[in-house]
């Protein structure tokens, strides 16, 4: 079991799987509501899952071609860049008067 996680699971795959599970649960709760805005929000969430599915497909293709270790390394660099951009934007917003 440990080899499976070591050889097949990547950062984006786990984040995508979690976001799909949470998104589907929230969308089901909203879709069963009585108000129209809740149903509309559920539709937006379902349509927002399409790019997440594309990320999973691209991730699996990259793992198949290059291996988990190289893909995780690149995905970690991408994740660090996004976190850095988020921090820089947060600092910029705090410095505005």
How would you describe this structure to a colleague?
With 97 residues, this protein is an all-alpha fold. It has one domain (2-95). Helices cover 90% and strands 0% of the residues. It is built from four helices and no strands. The longest helix is centred in the middle third of the chain and has 31 residues, at 36-66. It is flat, with a radius of gyration of 18 Å. The chain starts with a helix and ends with a helix. The model has no long low-confidence stretch (mean pLDDT 92).
Shape: flat
- What is the first-to-last residue Cα distance? 53 Å
Determine the number of helices (DSSP H or I, runs of at least 4 residues): 4
Order of helices and strands: HHHH
Over all CA atoms, what is the radius of gyration? 18 Å
The poorly predicted ranges are none
Structurally, how many domains make up the residues? Answer: 1
Strand content: under 5%
By DSSP, the count of extended strands is 0
- The average pLDDT value, as a whole number, equals 92
Q: Helical proportion?
A: over 70%
Helix/strand/pairing category:
mainly alpha
Main β sheet profile? none
Protein name: Transmembrane protein
Keywords: Membrane, Transmembrane, Transmembrane helix
Organism: Sphingobacterium kitahiroshimense
């Amino acid at each position: 079991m440990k080899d499976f996680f070591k050889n097949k699971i990547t950062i984006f795959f786990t984040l995508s799987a979690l976001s799909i599970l949470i998104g589907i649960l929230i969308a089901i709760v909203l879709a069963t509501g009585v108000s129209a805005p809740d149903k509309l929000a559920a539709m937006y969430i379902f349509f927002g899952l399409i790019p997440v599915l594309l990320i999973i497909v691209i991730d699996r293709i990259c793992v198949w071609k290059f291996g988990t270790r190289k893909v995780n390394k690149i995905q970690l660099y991408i994740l660090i860049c996004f976190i850095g951009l988020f921090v820089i934007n947060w600092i910029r917003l705090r410095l505005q008067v």
